Structures are given as structure tokens and as C-alpha cells.
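Module 6 notes. Inverse folding takes a fixed backbone as the condition and produces residue identities as the prediction. Think of it as a translation problem where the source language is geometry and the target language is the twenty amino acids. Below is one complete input and output pair. Work through it position by position during the lab.
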């Protein structure tokens, strides 16, 4: 996997901490609201980086986020299960992928992006 880091806008600590349960340090905690702009931005980043790493061959398109976990480390780790459409057709079948993104000081790094279920609608 190509290692690329992009800079993104910083969010406030209050916003980040509001997405996790009490005492979030160390282990993975569920993200209480996966529909925030920040979580959507992280999911879009993961899909975009996957497409870039594969030279935009058979590009994926984010459809929805199914669940998310966050881990407070030196920055934040986000593990998301995302539904993506394969190809550019609107009626294309989707697949479920698991991705992890590390965010620190406004920079995002894709750790992994792996399909876990293929051919869902």
C-alpha cells in the first residue's frame, strides 16, 4: 500500500470527544453518531485513498457508514464499516468494507481498507 498523508481541517477536542463514550482512552469505543460531518469526511477519505492506490481502476463510491469505532492514541484511530458501490452505475451492487484511518494534527493516514462482504444491495 502506498503511504500518503493529506492535511484536513482540525476539529475541536470537544467535537471529537463528543463522538465517543466516557473514558475513551486506550481501547476501541463505539462512535455514538456516525452521521456527523467529520465521520463522513473520514469515510470519504478512506474510499478516495483506496481508489487512488488502485489508480482509479473500478472506483468505489461511498454509499453509507454502517458502524464505527474510535480509539484515542497519539491522535485518533477510526475503524469504520462502510457500504460502497462498485463502479459508476447507480444500480451497481454494493460491498461492505472495513477501514481504519489514523488522524493526528489534522493529517489523515489510511491504515487499511478491506472488503468483508461482497455483492450486497
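Target side of the pair, the amino acids:
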Amino acid at each position: 500500500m502506498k503511504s500518503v498523508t493529506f492535511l484536513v481541517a482540525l476539529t475541536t477536542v470537544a467535537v471529537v470527544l463528543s463522538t465517543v463514550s466516557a473514558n475513551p482512552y486506550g481501547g476501541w469505543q463505539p462512535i455514538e453518531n456516525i452521521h456527523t460531518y467529520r465521520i463522513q469526511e473520514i469515510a470519504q477519505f478512506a474510499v478516495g485513498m483506496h481508489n487512488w492506490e488502485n489508480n482509479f481502476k473500478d472506483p468505489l463510491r461511498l454509499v453509507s457508514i454502517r458502524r464505527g469505532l474510535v480509539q484515542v492514541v497519539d491522535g485518533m484511530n477510526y475503524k469504520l464499516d462502510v457500504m460502497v458501490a462498485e463502479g459508476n452505475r447507480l444500480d451497481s451492487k454494493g460491498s461492505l468494507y472495513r477501514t481504519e484511518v489514523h488522524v493526528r494534527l489534522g493529517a489523515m493516514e489510511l491504515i487499511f481498507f478491506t472488503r468483508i462482504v461482497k455483492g450486497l444491495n
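Reference fact for the lab report: Strands lie at 5-7, 29-30, 60-73, 75-86, 94-104, 107-120.
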